[in-house]
C-alpha cells in the first residue's frame, strides 16, 4: 500500500493499473478534516514556543507564520485500488492548489474506466512523465483497444499470471 | 446500494451539502469513488474463459459510477473526552451514473464542486514568494543598470 511521492507518478501507475484491470479497479478520493489530537496540540505549542525563543534571527528566514495549535488538519487522499489483485496506490496532499489538477487527473483516468480513447491534448496540460505519451500516440492510430491490451500485458510486471 | 442513482444535477446538490456539512461541523470526511459501471454488461463465463482480457476492450464505452458519502459520527459520553462535543450524524450515501459522452462536462463541474468544498486545505502561501520575486527583480535591475 505505497504512498507515491508525486501526483504524476500516481497518475502513471494508476493508469497502468486501470489498463490491466479496467472493470474492477476503483478510485477513491477522500477529503478529511480532523481536529488535532491532544498530543499534536501540545507538540505544536512546544514547537511554537521554541521558535519564538530563538526568534528566527540565526537563520535569517522569514518570520514564521503563526499557526493556531488547535487548527484542524485537512488532507486530500487519492487511492486506486483493485480488489482482485490487491494493488493499492495512494497519493496524499494538503494543498488546495492541487485539487483542481488532481480532479483533472481523475477525469483522464475516468476516460480509461469508460473505455474512451485518451485525449491527445492531455499531453500539454499534464506534468506527466514520458511513459504516458506512448499510449496516446498509439491510440491515435485507432488501435486503442489492442494497444491497451499489449501494454497491460507488457508494462505491468506485477500483473503476471493473468493468462 | 439500496438507493437509486441520482441524476447528475441532484448528485451535485447532494455533494455540495456533504461538503457544507463538513464545513459546518469543522471536521469529518467526504469520500468520493469512481469506477466503471459494468453491472449487467458482463460478458458470459465462456467469453471470459476464451479471452482473459475481455474487459480491456469493451465493444462500446461504458458509463462510470460516481459515489459520494460522508462518515458516520457518534457522540461520545463523558465530558471533556475527545468526541464528546460532536453531534450524532448518520452516514449519507449518494451515487450517480455518468454516461461516457457527458464525462467531460461532468468533470468540469466536479472539479468546481470539489475546489469549492475542500476549503480546509492549505491555501497557496503567496506572501513569501512575492517578497522573493521583488528581491530578485530588484537584483536583476541593479545588474542591468
UniProtKB/TrEMBL annotation, chain A:
<dbReference type="GO" id="GO:0006614">
    <property type="term" value="P:SRP-dependent cotranslational protein targeting to membrane"/>
</dbReference>
<feature type="region of interest" description="Disordered">
    <location>
        <begin position="120"/>
        <end position="163"/>
    </location>
</feature>
<feature type="region of interest" description="Disordered">
    <location>
        <begin position="36"/>
        <end position="71"/>
    </location>
</feature>
<protein>
    <recommendedName>
        <fullName>SRP9 domain-containing protein</fullName>
    </recommendedName>
</protein>
<feature type="compositionally biased region" description="Low complexity">
    <location>
        <begin position="142"/>
        <end position="153"/>
    </location>
</feature>
<dbReference type="InterPro" id="IPR039914">
    <property type="entry name" value="SRP9-like"/>
</dbReference>
<feature type="compositionally biased region" description="Basic residues">
    <location>
        <begin position="154"/>
        <end position="163"/>
    </location>
</feature>
<dbReference type="InterPro" id="IPR039432">
    <property type="entry name" value="SRP9_dom"/>
</dbReference>
<feature type="domain" description="SRP9">
    <location>
        <begin position="5"/>
        <end position="112"/>
    </location>
</feature>
<dbReference type="GO" id="GO:0005786">
    <property type="term" value="C:signal recognition particle, endoplasmic reticulum targeting"/>
</dbReference>
<dbReference type="Pfam" id="PF05486">
    <property type="entry name" value="SRP9-21"/>
</dbReference>
<feature type="compositionally biased region" description="Basic and acidic residues">
    <location>
        <begin position="42"/>
        <end position="54"/>
    </location>
</feature>
From TrEMBL, chain B:
<feature type="compositionally biased region" description="Basic and acidic residues">
    <location>
        <begin position="45"/>
        <end position="58"/>
    </location>
</feature>
<feature type="compositionally biased region" description="Basic residues">
    <location>
        <begin position="121"/>
        <end position="138"/>
    </location>
</feature>
<feature type="region of interest" description="Disordered">
    <location>
        <begin position="43"/>
        <end position="98"/>
    </location>
</feature>
<dbReference type="GO" id="GO:0030942">
    <property type="term" value="F:endoplasmic reticulum signal peptide binding"/>
</dbReference>
<comment type="subunit">
    <text>Component of a fungal signal recognition particle (SRP) complex that consists of a 7SL RNA molecule (scR1) and at least six protein subunits: SRP72, SRP68, SRP54, SEC65, SRP21 and SRP14.</text>
</comment>
<dbReference type="Pfam" id="PF02290">
    <property type="entry name" value="SRP14"/>
</dbReference>
<dbReference type="GO" id="GO:0008312">
    <property type="term" value="F:7S RNA binding"/>
</dbReference>
<comment type="function">
    <text>Component of the signal recognition particle (SRP) complex, a ribonucleoprotein complex that mediates the cotranslational targeting of secretory and membrane proteins to the endoplasmic reticulum (ER).</text>
</comment>
<dbReference type="InterPro" id="IPR003210">
    <property type="entry name" value="Signal_recog_particle_SRP14"/>
</dbReference>
<keyword id="KW-0687">Ribonucleoprotein</keyword>
<keyword id="KW-0694">RNA-binding</keyword>
<protein>
    <recommendedName>
        <fullName>Signal recognition particle subunit SRP14</fullName>
    </recommendedName>
</protein>
<feature type="region of interest" description="Disordered">
    <location>
        <begin position="118"/>
        <end position="145"/>
    </location>
</feature>
<dbReference type="GO" id="GO:0005786">
    <property type="term" value="C:signal recognition particle, endoplasmic reticulum targeting"/>
</dbReference>
<dbReference type="InterPro" id="IPR009018">
    <property type="entry name" value="Signal_recog_particle_SRP9/14"/>
</dbReference>
<keyword id="KW-0963">Cytoplasm</keyword>
<comment type="similarity">
    <text>Belongs to the SRP14 family.</text>
</comment>
<dbReference type="GO" id="GO:0006614">
    <property type="term" value="P:SRP-dependent cotranslational protein targeting to membrane"/>
</dbReference>
<keyword id="KW-0733">Signal recognition particle</keyword>
Amino acid at each position: 500500500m505505497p504512498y507515491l511521492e508525486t501526483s504524476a507518478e500516481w497518475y502513471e501507475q494508476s493508469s497502468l493499473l486501470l489498463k490491466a484491470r479496467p472493470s474492477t479497479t476503483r478510485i477513491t478520493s477522500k477529503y478529511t478534516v480532523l481536529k488535532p489530537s491532544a498530543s499534536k496540540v501540545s507538540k505544536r505549542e512546544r514547537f511554537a514556543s521554541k521558535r519564538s525563543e530563538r526568534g528566527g534571527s540565526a537563520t535569517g528566514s522569514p518570520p514564521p507564520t503563526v499557526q493556531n495549535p488547535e487548527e484542524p488538519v485537512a488532507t486530500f487522499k487519492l487511492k486506486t485500488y483493485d480488489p482482485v489483485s490487491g494493488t493499492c496506490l495512494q497519493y496524499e496532499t494538503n494543498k488546495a492548489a492541487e485539487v483542481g489538477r488532481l480532479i483533472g487527473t481523475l477525469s483522464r483516468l475516468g476516460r480509461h474506466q469508460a473505455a474512451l480513447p485518451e485525449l491527445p491534448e492531455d499531453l500539454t496540460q499534464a506534468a506527466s512523465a514520458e511513459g504516458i505519451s506512448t499510449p496516446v500516440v498509439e491510440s491515435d492510430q485507432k488501435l486503442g483497444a489492442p494497444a491497451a491490451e499489449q501494454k497491460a500485458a507488457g508494462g505491468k510486471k506485477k500483473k503476471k499470471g493473468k493468462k | 446500494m439500496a438507493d437509486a442513482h441520482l441524476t447528475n444535477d441532484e448528485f451535485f446538490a447532494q455533494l455540495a451539502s456533504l461538503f457544507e456539512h463538513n464545513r459546518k461541523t469543522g471536521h469529518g470526511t467526504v469520500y468520493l469513488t469512481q469506477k466503471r459501471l459494468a453491472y449487467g454488461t458482463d460478458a458470459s463465463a465462456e467469453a471470459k474463459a476464451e479471452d482473459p482480457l475481455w474487459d480491456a476492450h469493451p465493444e462500446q464505452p461504458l458509463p462510470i459510477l460516481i459515489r459520494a458519502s460522508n462518515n458516520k459520527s457518534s457522540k461520545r459520553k463523558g465530558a471533556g473526552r475527545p468526541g464528546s462535543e460532536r453531534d450524532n450524524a448518520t452516514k449519507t450515501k449518494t451515487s450517480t451514473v455518468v454516461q461516457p459522452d457527458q464525462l467531460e462536462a461532468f468533470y468540469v463541474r466536479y472539479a468546481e464542486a470539489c475546489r469549492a468544498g475542500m476549503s480546509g486545505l492549505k491555501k497557496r502561501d503567496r506572501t513569501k514568494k512575492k517578497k522573493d520575486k521583488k528581491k530578485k527583480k530588484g537584483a536583476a535591475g541593479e545588474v542591468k543598470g
